[in-house]
Specification:
Shape: globular
Number of helices: 5
Number of strands: 4
Distance between the termini: 52 Å
Mean pLDDT: 87
Helix content: 40-55%
Strand order of the largest sheet: 1-2
Strand content: 15-25%
Length: about 100
Amino acid sequence: MSSPGFYKQGKSAIEEEFRTGRMVHRYQVVRLWEQDPALLLKQPALMPPAALARTDRPEQLLVRVAERIATIEAPGPRANTLAYAKILAGLRFAETVIDE
């Protein structure tokens, strides 16, 4: 059995593996703040976390996310995607900025 994989960043360690009994679950950590938002904005399911992606202009990125979500034709999925995007955007923006 191999030892768990870790990514060392400063004093913290991000696990890349979870073990329980004989089961091993391996995963890759995705640092949203390092990702190109254009890739996330291509698919509706990835639009909500796009507001957390790499950018020099965060408010402008938030506007792009809202514009892309507005292109979702079906009202139900559009409303759900918008709700998820608002929740995640709250990690980066004040509520007043999000509501604008």
